[in-house]
Amino acid sequence: MIKVAQCWDDGVYTDIKLTEILRKYNAKATFNLCPGLMADNAVKPHWHALDECGWSYQGFHGGRLGKNDLLEVYKGFQVASHCMHHEVAAQCDIATFKAGAVDAKKYLEDLFQRECPGFAWPCGGATEEAIEVLKENGFAYARTCENTTDVTKNTNPYRLASNCHFQDGRFWSKFQEAKANGVGAFYFWGHSYEMMDSPGLWQQLEDKIAALSADPDVVWVDVIDLVR
Ligand SMILES: [Zn+2]
Q: How far is 139 from 101, CA to CA, in rounded Å?
């Protein structure tokens, strides 16, 4: 038996398509959200126009979910704080980070009416001072962008490493290695906007989820189950 967990960052519009795929295969997942970046209503994904500036992924803007969409889109999944406005611990003062991390947690707990003890470091940036803030405010773990071959030996849950990004070229060999080595768990992460509007990339992800769900040794778990 191998526990498999996944999480997805930023609360983008393309999470709608992703959650449809995950539901189809009964796969669990945690979504790390920035409610402060969301308007009431959704912003659709689009390719940047010639004169359009601002953030994009290879020219693709993954859109944003609206606050009004959250309950429906993430129904049945776990949600976690990714800071209100994606505050990066190493790039802002500690009061700003604390407000970002804790306010997002409270917002999600009020909306979903359940405990949301998870956290993912915006841009992976953990600091010791910020870890203390998370500990003092009821967070149980915080995911970095670091990789490890054995997620069950994560010594510090506030610097939680995963096995790999979902588009890691060695995704399957890393999964097979973890399984063969009797590691007991496998954990991957990503952003749904990284599949853009590419049918091939979406199919590639669906094939991964389908294969994991079809594996009789796999038990989907939530990220919180890796640390509790
Ligand atoms: Zn992020």
A: 9
Q: How far is the CA of 34 from the centre of ligand 1 (A)?
A: 8
Q: Kindly give the distance from the C-alpha atom of residue 150 to the centroid of ligand 1, in angstroms, as a whole number.
A: 23
Q: Which CATH class is domain 2-227?
A: alpha beta
pLDDT digits (tens, 9 = 90+) for 87-130: 999 999 999 999 999 999 999 999 999 999 999 999 988 999 99
Cα–ligand 1 centroid distance for 63 (angstroms): 13
Whole-structure pTM over 0.90, yes or no?
A: yes
Whether the CB-CB separation of 104 and 81 falls below 8 Å is answered with: yes
Measure Cα distances from 159 to 69, 122, 226 in Å: 30, 12, 13
